[in-house]
Specification:
about 210 residues, mainly alpha, about 0% strand
């Protein structure tokens, strides 16, 4: 039987974990990015991409929640090397957004690329994976699992209605936000890459 104090601890833990993950995932930041990448596609395809993005992010977070650092150990990798790789991909995406060019995708690329790129590294990047690992260390599996599920549900709703949000903001505002966010994404990517390099070299520097 679960006492009231245990239930209160469970609820407070879920709320904290949800808040931490929601801030890291920041699905609202993904709206203009997602809208620009799915621009001109039919509603059915946009909704499909929203599901793919959430599925990709969810699968990665659940995997790292359950298997934690064992994945890195098996592959002989570290979080620092993951940061470098993820940061490079994020930087390329930021350049695409800011300059309006296609560095990673050809004109004939499959539309599923939008959902995959939004899923990782935009939603589930090094920051999200690190947060999941830290939450599992502090709370075990149950609380982070529930928090991840709630975050994924909220993210799916936001991306599902991204077309409506885009209409409210307007094309001009969305395009401007996309370019500005592209520069911010590139800047964040550089910071992630730099952090990965510092971690790899074992230098006592924090940024």
């Amino acid at each position: 039987m679960i006492c009231s104090s245990d239930m209160a601890d469970l609820v407070s833990g879920i709320i904290y974990a949800f808040a931490a993950l929601f801030v890291i995932l920041d699905p609202l930041l993904s709206v203009p990015i997602f809208a620009s990448m799915t621009k001109g596609q039919p509603s059915r395809e946009i909704h499909k991409q929203a599901f793919i993005a959430v599925a990709v992010a969810g699968i990665l977070m659940y995997i790292f929640l359950i298997f934690n650092t064992a994945i890195f150990s098996i592959l002989g990798l570290t979080l620092s090397t993951f940061q470098i790789a993820g940061g490079i991909l994020l930087f390329l995406l930021g350049m695409e957004m800011a300059l309006g060019i296609d560095l990673c995708r050809s004109k004939d690329a499959a539309p599923t690329a939008a959902g995959v790129v939004i899923g990782t590294p935009i939603l589930c990047g090094p920051g999200a994976i690190t947060t999941v690992m830290l939450l599992s260390k502090d709370y075990g599996i149950l609380i982070p699992f529930i928090a991840i599920t709630l975050c994924l549900a909220a993210t799916w709703i936001i991306l599902y209605f991204s077309a409506g949000i885009q209409r409210i903001l307007g094309t001009v505002v969305t395009d401007i936000m996309g370019k500005v966010l592209g520069m911010l994404v590139a800047a964040i990517a550089i910071k992630i890459i730099f952090s990965g390099i510092i971690g790899t070299l074992g230098l006592p520097i924090t940024i």
